[in-house]
Description:
- This protein has helices at 126-136, 143-146, 166-171, 173-180, 185-190, 205-208, 214-229, 237-252, 262-266, 284-292, 300-309, 320-334, 431-449, 464-467, and strands at residues 2-5, 15-18, 25-28, 38-45, 56-58, 67-74, 94-96, 101-107, 113-119, 147-153, 156-159, 194-199, 343-350, 362-369, 373-378, 384-389, 394-398, 406-415, 418-427, 495-497, 518-519.
- It is an alpha+beta fold.
- Helix 7 (214-229) packs across helix 12 (320-334), helix 8 crosses helix 11 and helix 8 runs antiparallel to helix 12 (320-334).
- It is globular, with a radius of gyration of 27 Å.
Amino acid sequence: xxxxxxxxxxxxxxxxxxxxxxxxxxxxxxxxxxxxxxxxxxxxxxxxxxxxxxxxxxxxxxxxxxxxxxxxxxxxxxxxxxxxxxxxxxxxxxxxxxxxxxxxxxxxxxxxxxxxxxxxxxxxxxxxxxxxxxxxxxxxxxxxxxxxxxxxxxxxxxxxxxxxxxxxxxxxxxxxxxxxxxxxxxxxxxxxxxxxxxxxxxxxxxxxxxxxxxxxxxxxxxxxxxxxxxxxxxxxxxxxxxxxxxxxxxxxxxxxxxxxxxxxxxxxxxxxxxxxxxxxxxxxxxxxxxxxxxxxxxxxxxxxxxxxxxxxxxxxxxxxxxxxxxxxxxxxxxxxxxxxxxxxxxxxxxxxxxxxxxxxxxxxxxxxxxxxxxxxxxxxxxxxxxxxxxxxxxxxxxxxxxxxxxxxxxxxxxxxxxxxxxxxxxxxxxxxxxxxxxxxxxxxxxxxxxxxxxxxxxxxxxxxxxxxxxxxxxxxxxxxxxxxxxxxxxxxxxxxxxxxxxxxxxxxxxxxxxxxxxxxxxxxxxxxxxxxxxxxxxx
Length: 539
């Protein structure tokens, strides 16, 4: 049995690259003068299952520090490649600064870097590192429950528990990608996580409205702004223009008609509005977009009008009280979104069939889970396909043999005017994470509801800032049927069934004993039992 890191194979000879559906691996072959081939290959990649393959082809060495174990029975000579202890894997957030000290880079959402020097990094927990970051940023003590440490890459985002050890999770990142993503072998080897300081998804909005510290409000504002501008928080154009006007006021100061013209804002439109809403191109391309778009693109005129409507106080923009009010106004408006402060997961759902000759295929979606519920967001169109509060759904996670991970969501709906139960399948290797988070959020909400009135957190009395928001309270557009945050059940391919699963009956079924046993059982409901039929269609 031979153990070595792959990067130690550099310039040692030719190599055979093994590729399988499970995990990539590499077998080194020495230039011994004969074509020795293994009769049996068993490949262990860290904590992954055993992989056996006989399909081999020549390829270059992959210079990555992923340790593997090879057990070989060969007809020719056996080669042992010694380990090089000086070769170490480099992570984007960790670098060595001495025998026992390490430099740790913690990133804020606005790409600000917090550089720390930590002793015994391999044993430091997320809670200890969180405390060091909070002290470095001079945040108040309650920042421990407001923020959390995350490991983030373009393909996976994980909030760390206080007991987690970030260094060890970084070393296991490729295992996590293999388990929870559908990335290719090359993408897994290239991906590296960064350690980020973000909002804790379990911090309730009712507590956030009580925050007075300017630094905490600024961090929350930067994160909310990032999620709005990146389209992670879908919202209507008019609402995004109001939020963009607040960003203009914070970054540019009070409105100046001589300086803040339409041309001035047009050059910086992406800094204030989501890029998917901004008008692109000129002439014919712009006209074609306007004809084919489902909603009007943003332009500088709407942002300019919203900027002009931002009320001004006596204090200047640099005044800390004025900035605190602007941060709070931005966050209060974002609180209207049901998926504010959520965790994001990637997945796919079935498209509805559009004809006999046109298969539906699949649609890429983002699954947003917060303390309030589960929301399925169209990753391309940036609008909500389905929004369910926990008391409105049942769920389960299945992983049939040799099939995909599926998160099942069950909810009430209609089929040609008849009340039915609907099943939605979300295909994702992160379904296990989603199911666990849903269960934990329900348990957390139940424990908070069971608290004594005296011990339960109370809402702070509304401040003058809350009584006088920067914009006049108009009828919110959240109830508009064409709003991007309204569910679009007609765009979903669901399995509809009623009691016995054979025919649609006129009596509305209940879900107190659901097709799935996992649901919010203590919530009041008016549904009767549903029995799962043996011949229920599974897809």
